[in-house]
Predict the 3D structure of the following.
Amino acid sequence: MAIVDPNTLATLGLKHLLQNVMPIMTVDVFGSFAELEANNPEQYVHYFVAMNIVLENRNFFLERRRRTIVLTVSAGPNSQMKDFHSICINVPEDQLVRSLLMLEQHAHAQGKNLPPVPRALQAKILTDREIEVLSLIVQGYINKEIADQLSIGLTTVITHRKNIMEKLGMKSVSALTIYAVMHGYVDINKI
């Protein structure tokens, strides 16, 4: 995947999120269309591109519209470009993650059009109980509610939560959400 946007901080953040959403994909960052053009642009499955760059190079991206996602700063209907998928990047992290996950699920249902997942990532890392706890965490339940729902103690929930984060090497609920959706443990519409 390629991100084409002159805003360095925004591109670094988006690159991090995309790598969490689709860890099997390589993400390259370009500050301008010229940089993208100089680096074999046809090698990329998707282009995440700032709106002004799409407008300045409309013909290039129009020919690749199914592969182009326009990065907008507003979610309003007047800020969306006709014929292109758009994602508003000026939203809280959880909303941006949700938008990315919905786009990924829509475009790549059941993993079609994606490269195969490496065997190491296919291995079941979490126990069945940890998967249940994970599912409830990403649906927004607090520890006490999870304990009540699963009929287990509060300290057990806290231990499961700690084990989940250690096993997955993740430190935020956003990262857990991405993992849970990508592995089919929770439906994006329940978040």
Summary: The chain has ten helices and five strands.
